[in-house]
Amino acid sequence: MEISESIFWMGNRLATNCVEISKDPADLSKPGFWVVVNTFEGDWFCARFTDVQDAPLPISPWAGIDGKWHSSQSQTSYEANVHQIKELIAKGEIYQVNLCRVLSNDCDQSLLGLANLLQKSNPAPYASYLSLPGLEIASASPELFLQRSGDQIKSTPIKGTALEDNFGEKDKAENVMIVDLMRNDFGAICQPGSIDVPRLLASESHPGLFHLVSDITGVLKSNQSWQEILTALLPAGSISGAPKSSAIKVISQIEKSERGPYCGVIGWIENNQALLSVGIRIFWSKQDGQINFGTGAGITWQSDPNSEWEETELKAKRLISIADGVKV
I need a labelling partner for 180 at 20 to 30 A (CA). Which of 115, 156, 227, 242 fits? Predict the structure, then answer.
């Protein structure tokens, strides 16, 4: 496809007429409406669009997917990896790791039709659709990575997933751990004394499940560039672990395959305004005849390997069914 055919939609904002695609986050400080994807591995897609309007997602059909989804980790290997992470926790090397796997299937359809179906069957607060040369994403993300209005910023990490509105001590401890991590990340870019947690351990209802969430807010220091802000915050704490640098190393060693835009960041930046989601509950394609979907769980010392596997199944079941064309 041509750059000019690119399209982005999020929060009823429709962007067309892409005139520039950059791999350099420094370009985000240039004026204009920038669509941003940062993969979990740190690759950048920065696309500048000139036509932005309030409009619904364009309509497109979806035929459903036939065939079997293949997982990057079997249940046996995933549960063995949970045991391995718990051994590292016991040694004091890490405290928490988000362990993920990727489901893949054959697909030669545009994901725009799937994005329409997700809007209907699994509405999400940070849903989006993006089509660029070599990358297409249909997102039903429930998680806010960063909202910016002037110098005010907010992040709302999710830690805790359940079928019912009832969370155990493991979920609560994990959520508080990630809040502390995000407060520390905010400390590098925010004015002293400005960081607050106005909402802690709140339950949110989403289609088919409940999430435990918290809000972290702050006021940016003067003259912070977008590159400085994003370098301090990426990758998101909720999908990496703590300490973040150690968790990223463990993820690379254990998962072995790349996550790509899954667990990355998807959204838009326009001067000192921004809305960026965490790339969870997303389908993506490199326009190579494959569709991908990621799912994961946070591993702590309290984790039960089978329960963590079941959490990844819970997070995937509804959305995979939608992609398959099964009514939910």
Answer: 227
